[in-house]
Amino acid sequence: MQPASKTAEMPETKRKLVDAGVRLMRLKGFTATTVDDICEAAEVTKGAFFHYYKSKEDLAKAAITRFGENQFADSHAAPYRKLADPLQRVYGRLDYVKESSGGTRHLTKGCLVGTVAQELSFTHSALRSSCQDAFLRVAGDFEKDLAAAKSVHAPQADFDPKKLATLFVSIFQGSLIMAKASEDNTVLSDNLEQFRRYLQTLFGQNSKN
Length: 209
What we know:
The chain is mainly alpha-helical. The chain has 10 helices and no strands.
């Protein structure tokens, strides 16, 4: 994957800083994470921080990109990608998302992009734009399989793959928030299962398929 290779080419100190930013901002949010926190977690000096990043916002943009690259690379390496039937890839993605978010065994750590979007959309336009780009990338990737599945299995069905992919992103992000609020991943699993059943209806299947 080209994005991952670009990240791998980062100088080690820069990589450590952005990785620390991902971990801490995902856990605590942007505002509660300080430059000192990031430097301590990365085990680098503040001088090294400002050598690579002019501000915490500048690092946050890099962290959003890094998080998105990692998530996208992991998704593309997942077994469901190799399924020949696009509809099975659609359902396989839901299984993958559920398990990679902790399943029913572990509480999700949430999504860095969603966390930053909620916290800063009205105050940091550059970060808001980065979050929107990340959401659109996920939706656009899912749209391809949904469109292919519609073409093969339900060409006459009355739904828009692009809007359906956007709905999935919205359901997933909202479910992450609810899971964190309840300290229980059950709501995340339940919502993804309800979305699966909705897809089965759209594709003319019953819930046992």
